[in-house]
Amino acid sequence: MKTTLQLYSNTPHPQVEYWSVCKVEALFETPFLELVHRAALVHRENFNPQAIQLSTLMSIKTGGCPEDCGYCPQSARYQTGVQKQELLNVEDIVEKAKIAKSRGASRFCMGAAWRGPKPKDIAKMTEIIKAVKALGLETCGTFGLLADGMAEDLKKAGLDYYNHNLDTSPEHYNKVIGTRGFDDRLNTLGKVRKAGLKVCCGGIIGMNESRKERAGFIASLANLDPQPESVPINQLVKVEGTPLSDAQELDWTEFVRTVAVARITMPKSYVRLSAGRQGMSEEMQAMCFMAGANSIFYGDKLLVTGNAEEDCDRLLMEKLDLEPETTENRYLSQNS
Ligand code: SAM
Ligand code: DTB
Ligand code: SF4
Question: What is the domain range of residue 130?
Answer without folding.
Answer: 21-324
